[in-house]
Each structure stands twice: as structure tokens, then as C-alpha cells.
Amino acid sequence: MVEKIKKEWFSQPGTNILAGIVVALALIPEAIAFSIIAGVDPMVGLYASFLIAVIISFAGGRPAMISAATGAIALLVTPLVSEYGVDYLLAATILMGVIQIALGLFKVGRLMKFIPNSVMIGFVNALAIMIFMAQIEHIFGVSLDTYVYLIITLLIVYLFPRFLKKVPAPLIALVVLTSAYLIFGSDVKTVGDLGEIERSLPSFFLPDVPFTLETLKIILPFSLSMAVVGLVESLLTARIVDNATDTFSSKNRESRGQGIANFITGFFGGMGGCAMIGQSVINVKSGATTRLSTFTAGVFLMFLIIVLGNWVVQIPMPILAGIMVMVSVGTFDWGSFKYLQKAPRTDAFVMLITVIIVLFTSNLALGVIVGVIFSALFFATKISKVEVHLETEDNLNKYRIEGQIFFASIDSMMNQIDLNIYDKNVELDFSKAHLWDDSAVDAIDTIVRKLEEKNNKVYVKQLNADSRKIVKELSELNEQHLTS
After folding, report:
1. pLDDT (tens digit, 9 = 90+) per residue, 416-443?
2. Dist CA 464 CA 466 (whole Å)
3. Are 405 and 434 spatial neighbours (Cβ–Cβ below 8 Å)?
4. 212 SS3 class
5. Are residues 444 and 332 in the same domain?
6. Cβ(39)–Cβ(330) under 8 Å?
């Protein structure tokens, strides 16, 4: 246990602290922007980012992953805030946490294995595009100085890691260019232009909503949506960080941790949140591997607001936009173009439809769910092809059936068997087939019944152990029909 704590918290502390500082700086404009999207005060997003990052560093299942207020959640709650107000948002966030904790206890993390690679690629690419698109308003149509700051930021972030690896390049860009702005001044937008920052810590309070069934009816649909979207984004981000760091994380613990973080955040005036792939990538690219980086990001965020608030609001936005542009470039799977050419058409379609759904709806969970559904349909179609070979000897018709027999393939099987024969011995050989469900059993019962109505003797042969078990449990066939 002690060794695990040392590994998850105190391995390379200097590198992880520096990475967390970089992430904290990148969190401020994001949290403010998401607050504006949701229609709430900027401090609602900032408090959420601080609290969720700190809590998840202890309760989460994926070290070095960053969780905070996110755009995906902000988009979901906009109607709730506009119609009912901030207190209902906080109540919905608390309920969101309860739902996520319950899903974690039911081990929802196991569902990750059902998300195919094509959906993962689509999710990552859609997120990279969304990160880039979110920076456009901070780059174009502002001023010439904005382009200068952006280009210099891109050069620093791209070139400096080749010469100096101990200090994160985004941190160098932030310190150098913000100092240049403070000394020389420039015609650029700053963090302070996004919204006013109050220099105060969050405090505990109960949302001012009636504790009635009517309130539950209002907030439950939003809480469910936030819980599902938050977990989908968090678990997929955890899987991406797993791959980037060649390590394993507990998805069920992460689910519970997300719930605990959101539950507590709602009592301290913060909106709901989840894992952030952009900031997580910044963290990992900066060398972070432990929970200390996530904890530092949350704590340093509040330090920036309370102690250095007057300086933070003067950070030029093109610097932060440039850092996020590089994150989007690094996040996008550039091998996707080759993947589209070489992968099966169905997989390529699933990848594209996932990207399209996410971009058009700004709903990551919906894109993933649609992608998984299409992938499942294509898979079911692919394995529903059954081949039936007929061999005839004197008075014997022997059908050798090959394939997976389940609800989607029974029509294919039955269409290849002649049910209009009379006075024959009929063998149904399943040595190269597998029966999966009650629909398969019912199909065999139907074939046997229709053939026996025409005075045929029918034998079901060579069922494997699992198929024989399901037939014995669900079928109307007797031992005379079943032969080895």
C-alpha cells in the first residue's frame, strides 16, 4: 500500500508539479468560457474546476488525468439554468454525483470493453476538432498582435521540447509572452475580457430549491444526461491516457470518483464536470504521471485566482489559444486518413459517423453511443451469415450448418432448409455452428416441428456443450431428437 501511494503521488514530484501549474493556467479561460456557455457566473466554473481536480486526485482511478468543468456538461445544463436558475443547476449536479457513484458501484467501467477502436478514433478526432474550433474566436478577427503572439506561442511549444525537456514548453510560452505583454503592451484580448474573477474561496451551502417530487422531476433528466455524458467522456479519456502512458487504471474507481467529486462540488457552488482530454494531454505531454499533477492543477488554480488574480486576468488569450491549438494537433489521430483507406468500410463509416454526430451535436456521449450502435449492427450483420450444406444419401437428407445461430441469423438458416420434403430421415448437423439465444432454439424447434408434420424423422446432431445446454433448458425437443 505504501509503495502504491509513493508511486501514484511522489514519483518525479518536480515534473508533476510543473505540469500541474501549466494545466492550471490553461484551466482558467476554459472554466470561464464554459460558465458563459452554461449561463452562470464565471466563478461557478472556476470553483468546479478547483474542487473537481482536487477531489478526483484522491478519489479517481486514473493518475495524471485532469477533471474539471467541461463544455460537454455546460451545453447540457443551459436550458436548466435559463429556465430555473443556478440553484437548480447545483441540485442537479449533486444528483449527478449520486447517479455516477451508483453506476460506479454497479461497475459500469466494464462497459468500456464494448467500445470498438473505430469509435475511439472518431471520439478522439472529434474532440481534437472541437478543441481547435473553440480557439477560433480567440485567434481570428481580433488584431495583428494576436497573430504574432499565436505564432510565437506555436513555435515555442513546438521547438523548445527539442532542446529543453525538464520545463514544459507551454509554461515557458506563458511566462515569456505574458511578461512581454506586461512590459510592452499589445492589442490583444486577455483572460480578464472573458469575465470577472472574484478573489475568494468557495463556501458550503445548500441549493435553495424546494425538496419536493416536482424538483426531482425537473432536475432528474438533466442529472441523468450529465452523469452519462460525464462518465463516457471520463472513461474514454482515461483509456486514452492509459495508452499514452502504457499503464492501467481502474475505470470503476474513476466512475465512483467522478461521482464523489460532482456530489461535493454541488454543495460548494460549482457546476458539474468530468475528465478533460485537452488538459489531460497537456498534463501527460508535460511529463505528468502521478496524482500530484492533478492535485497541483486544482490547488494552483485557486492560488492563481486568490493570490495572483490581478496578474492572471492579464494573460493574453492568444497564448492560451496557441497552447490549445498544439494540443488539438497532438490529439488528432493523423493516421486516420490511412485508416479510412485500409480499414473495412463499415469501420471507416463508424469512425466518420462518430465524428459527425459529435461535431453537429457537441455531445460526446451521443456520438459514442451512435457509433457503438452502428458498430454492433454491422457486426451482427457480418456474423449473421449462415451456410447450410445439403448432402443426400438414399432416404437421408443431411444438413451441415455453419455459423453463429442467433436472432439475426435464423432467417438465413431457415431459408436454406427445404421444409417441403416427405417421408425422409433428416439430420441437422451443428458441429460447425453455435446456438446463442432463445431465438436460435425456437428456430430449431420450428424446423423440427414442420418437418415432422410431413412424416419425416428429424435428428439434431453434434451440438457443442453450451448449445446442448441451452437447447435442453429452452427447447421442446426430446432425447430422441438429440444425438451426438
Report:
1. 888 888 888 888 888 899 988 888 888 8
2. 6
3. yes
4. coil
5. no
6. no
